Amino acid sequence: MIDSGLKTCTLLLAMLCSFAGAAEEFSEIRVGNFSHGNLRGWEEKKFNGSSQYRIIELEGRKVLMAHSQGGASGLIKKQRIDLQETPYLNWQWRIANRLGPLPEQQKAGDDYAARVYVIVSGGWAFWRTRAINYVWSGRMHKGDVWQNAFAGRHAMMIAVRSARDPVASWEKEKRNVRKDLSSIYGEDFRYIDAVALMTDTDNAGGRATAYYGDIYFSAE
């Protein structure tokens, strides 16, 4: 277990010192083109051991497979998104197994079979960094919101899926990120600066396999 909070805090704070460039102006913006076998722009960040990420073919299409056995690393893509133009985050995911009812609000249980982050960089004012973790929870109920055990309010958690959802089944998600950020932080954020994903099992020492489909933002 990383009591210093390196896993989450490093991902959300240290990696995002600065961002440059304007947001793209399209009705649909691709962030993860996994179905094309493309990992361009995604960087791996290791924390405690590592998770393995690779493109595979599953049921006739290419997807990103993530496997973690007692380790933690994530993939991050720095890409500025204008939430005024494209506020909806879309993705598909599935898990091969559940981690069980871990104490997810505590550091000892901050593991998830699958999670997708959106990050608002604070630049050098790292204390202004904000993030939402959309997670496949093993303990919390769908729709629950809570502070990350390591990063506090810098990274808020939303249970999009729970232990009631089936394994080995693709689930399609759509979230209004601008609305979620405003609801949680009480501010209107126009831009997010990065998207990340992670399958991690380092704190409780478990094992998890998950699959991620394409990730994109849309106008509606």
Describe the model:
With 220 residues, the protein is mostly beta strands. The chain has one domain (6-218): Jelly Rolls (Sandwich), CATH 2.60.120. It is built from 2 helices and 13 strands, in the order H-E-E-E-E-E-E-E-E-E-E-E-H-E-E. The chain has helices at 6-12, 177-185; strands at 28-32, 42-48, 52-58, 61-69, 72-82, 88-95, 112-120, 130-136, 145-148, 152-161, 171-176, 191-200, 207-218. The strands form 2 sheets. A 7-stranded mixed β-sheet has the order 2-5-12-7-8-10-9. Strand 3 (52-58) and strand 4 form a beta hairpin. The longest helix is centred in the last third of the chain and has 9 residues, at 177-185. It is globular and about 35 Å long.
Map the helices and strands.
Elements: H1 6-12, E1 28-32, E2 42-48, E3 52-58, E4 61-69, E5 72-82, E6 88-95, E7 112-120, E8 130-136, E9 145-148, E10 152-161, E11 171-176, H2 177-185, E12 191-200, E13 207-218
Low-confidence spans = 1-6, 13-25
SS-derived structural category: mainly beta
Strand content: over 45%
Please provide the count of β strands: 13
End-to-end span in angstroms? 40 Å
**How big is the Rg?**
16 Å
CATH topology: Jelly Rolls
Query: Which bin fits the share of residues in helices?
Result: under 10%
CATH homologous superfamily classification: Galactose-binding domain-like
The largest beta-sheet arranges its strands as 2-5-12-7-8-10-9
- The rough form would be described as globular
Please give the count of helices: 2
| SSE arrangement, N to C | HEEEEEEEEEEEHEE
CATH architecture identity? Sandwich
Oligomer state of the chains in this structure: single chain
